[in-house]
């Protein structure tokens, strides 16, 4: 299980470091992005087993589509429904 690739998309340096430290301690390989756009680029270059993404990032107005993702469309539609009120 360990040594699988995880993409962490988080704009807060301290949060990103915490996630990196915990996951690397457990043996996972981590790639990191500060923005959704950067996360999409990294996911296309090195498809991860898991994406951990801050969906309320200050630096991304919306969640970009990441190929193979099942959660992003549901989260995006929920966010759109919430912002319409």
Number of helical elements: 3
Shape: flat
Would you state the CATH class? Alpha Beta
User: Share of helix among residues?
Assistant: 40-55%
Tell me the total number of β-strands. Answer: 3
Which strand-content bin applies to the residues?
15-25%
Mean pLDDT: 77
The CATH H-level superfamily is Response regulator
If you consult CATH, what is the topology? Rossmann fold
How would you describe the overall organization of this protein?
The protein has a single domain (5-83), classed as Rossmann fold (3-Layer(aba) Sandwich), CATH 3.40.50. Helix content is 42%, strand content 16%. The longest helix has 13 residues, at 13-25. By secondary structure, the chain is of the alpha/beta class. It is built from three helices and three strands. Mean pLDDT is 77; it is low at 78-85. Strand 1, helix 1 (13-25) and strand 2 (29-33) form a beta-alpha-beta unit. It has helices at residues 13-25, 36-45, 71-83; strands at 5-9, 29-33, 50-53. Strands 2-1-3 form a three-stranded parallel beta sheet. The radius of gyration is 13 Å and the shape is flat.
Offer a quick outline of the entry.
It is built from 3 helices and 3 strands.
Which helices and strands occur, and which strands form pairs?
Layout: E1 5-9, H1 13-25, E2 29-33, H2 36-45, E3 50-53, H3 71-83
Parallel strand pairs: 1-2, 1-3
Keywords:
three-stranded parallel beta sheet; disordered C terminus; 3 helices; Rossmann fold; flat; 85 residues
